[in-house]
Amino acid sequence: AQKVTQAQTEISVVEKEDVTLDCVYETRDTTYYLFWYKQPPSGELVFLIRRNSFDEQNEISGRYSWNFQKSTSSFNFTITASQVVDSAVYFCALSEAGRGTDKLIFGTGTRLQVFP
Amino acid sequence: EPEVTQTPSHQVTQMGQEVILRCVPISNHLYFYWYRQILGQKVEFLVSFYNNEISEKSEIFDDQFSVERPDGSNFTLKIRSTKLEDSAMYFCASSGRGDLSSYEQYFGPGTRLTVT
Question: For B77-95, how does the pLDDT look when each residue is reduced to its tens digit (9 = 90+)?
Answer without folding.
Answer: 999 999 999 999 999 999 8
